[in-house]
Design a protein that fits this description.
Radius of gyration: 20 Å
Structural class: alpha+beta
Mean pLDDT: 96
CATH architecture of one domain: 4-Layer Sandwich
Number of strands: 16
Low-confidence stretches: none
CATH topology of one domain: Metallo-beta-lactamase, Chain A
Bound molecules: zinc ion
CATH class of one domain: Alpha Beta
Helix content: 25-40%
CATH superfamily of one domain: Ribonuclease Z/Hydroxyacylglutathione hydrolase-like
């Protein structure tokens, strides 16, 4: 962690409990069944009810905790509105269920709504696409089939995402907790991630775009193979440099902190280092699978290995579009080599 980052002096909330962050703004946590074992959610209080930011993943443990919150917090004042920063299941998994239970408005960007809706529907899953993607990038048939299987049940982590929504765009303003929050759209980790900034409170609700301890996953994925997510991420992050350096950041994972600009510097340095290393590796034509094996030298479980391919591809693609690597496709296998 960068020395310039400091945690806010707030108690991490117990499951089902709220920690106050500012006037009419609260922090709650939901567990996740992964190495990253929690997500932070936020609740803003108005006279007529609550606005919730992000929802948690769909499983029995999280549903039970929501049951507790229904019978204490929401029994006094209802849930009126759900804002999702982005479509990943820890953020949007229970949005459809919560919206139906409370008749709450569902609010997000168009890109996040569309992708979340697709991910939450079993019928939208395309296993062949995943398998072709992994094979084209140098993975064995066994690895590629495993990769496709890994993503085949992602819809289980969601209640179906609502079929209608209220649209946020860059610059949209949401009034919640008595103050205005302006939408800043972050790219690269998700499609159009909605981050919210309150000038009055000098607080940024950052979703997964800016995190205190980890780098958000920046993956080139099978559904958008010609994208440049790493460029999108680094470029869209520059918007946050216009915010006050002492803004409090409420991230979706780990603890609220100050040191936004230092964290943006960390991300710039980290990815420049990874890009330089990637370029060093590609002295001869290499597949993403081969490059990934050299970039990620620690032991990876199956889940992490698929993410490593996506991360590696994001860096390869960035360098290709910068004119530093050339991509060739022979016999259905893509390889990248340095242009000397
Ligand atoms: Zn995410």
């Amino acid at each position: 962690m960068n020395a310039a980052i400091e945690h806010l002096p707030l108690a991490v909330p117990e499951p089902g409990c709220l920690t106050q962050v500012a006037e009419r703004l609260y922090w709650l946590r939901m567990p996740l069944p992964y190495a990253l074992d929690h997500i932070n959610l936020w609740l803003a209080e108005d006279d007529d009810g609550w606005t919730l930011i992000d929802c948690g993943i769909k499983n029995d443990v999280v549903l039970d905790i929501w049951g507790q919150i229904f019978s204490n917090t929401f029994a006094k004042k209802p849930l009126r509105r759900i804002v999702c920063t982005h479509c990943h299941p820890d953020h949007m998994g229970l949005a459809g269920w919560l919206a139906a239970e409370w008749g709450a408005e569902f609010v997000t960007t168009r890109g996040e709504w569309g992708m979340g809706r697709l991910l939450s529907l079993e019928s939208a899953y395309d296993g062949d696409l995943y398998q072709r993607h992994f094979q084209e990038n140098g993975c064995s048939l066994e690895f590629a089939t495993g990769g496709a299987r890994q993503f085949s049940n992602i819809y289980n982590l969601y209640a179906p995402v609502p079929s209608s929504f209220t649209c946020l765009r860059a610059g949209s303003v949401i009034h919640m907790g008595g103050v205005d929050w302006r939408v800043i759209v972050g790219l690269g980790h998700a499609f159009e991630q909605a981050c919210l900034y309150s000038e009055a409170l000098n607080i940024l609700i950052a979703g997964d775009q800016v995190l205190p301890r980890i780098t958000p996953a920046i993956l080139l994925q099978s559904h958008q193979p010609t994208g440049n997510p790493l460029h999108d991420f680094l470029d869209s992050n520059q918007q946050f440099r216009a915010l006050s350096a002492d803004a409090a950041v409420l991230p979706s994972h780990h603890q609220p902190f100050t040191g936004l600009h230092a964290r943006l510097d960390d991300y710039d340095h980290h990815h420049q280092e990874r890009l330089a290393k990637t370029l060093d590796i590609c002295t001869a034509p290499m597949t993403a699978f081969e490059v990934s094996g050299q970039l990620f030298t620690r032991e990876l479980d199956a889940h992490q290995a698929f993410f490593a391919i996506g991360e590696t591809l994001a860096h390869l693609r960035y360098l290709e579009l910068e004119g530093k690597l050339v991509r060739t496709l022979e016999g259905g296998i893509a390889r990248y080599a340095r242009i000397s």
